[in-house]
Design brief:
about 130 residues, alpha+beta, Nuclear Transport Factor 2, Chain: A, 6-stranded mixed sheet, about 45% strand, globular
């Protein structure tokens, strides 16, 4: 792969699927052995950790989508270098169980293989997420 616009198209497609609440569309952007990691202390916030492979990603993304609606995403920065990309976004998120909305920024680090996302590491304000769901 390595083509900047092709990689960004895959990322934007994944983000659009996430915004629609479409777990299948989101998983389709990932390599069949793809890994998603939400960085953080799992003892402080159960949502953190990794999921690998389409079935596990489907379950994890389904849970995230059921609980956190991405109302709006503004992409602030996009960087591509070889098979890697970094995207910083500002999100307006609704915590579905309570209806509470909050604004936050996330940093997504992508690695690509065979035109698909093989690894996505997401850095989010896990303390803010914990406060919202508590």
């Amino acid at each position: 792969m390595g083509h900047r616009e092709d990689m960004l198209d895959v990322i934007r497609s994944a983000y659009a699927a996430r915004g629609r609440g479409d777990a299948n569309g989101l998983v389709a952007a990932f390599h069949r052995e793809g890994v998603f990691t939400l960085v953080g202390d799992n003892s402080a916030l159960e949502l953190t950790g990794s999921a690998q492979g389409h079935p596990t990603l489907q379950a994890a993304f389904g849970q995230f989508i059921a609980n956190f609606e991405f109302v709006e995403r503004d992409i602030l920065d996009e960087l591509v270098d070889g098979e890697r990309a970094a995207v910083r976004s500002r999100l307006l998120v609704r915590y579905v169980p309570t209806g509470k909305t909050f604004s936050t920024e996330v940093l997504d680090l992508f690695r690509f293989q065979d035109g698909k996302i093989i690894e996505l590491i997401e850095f989010a304000d896990t303390a803010q997420i914990k406060a919202v769901i508590s």
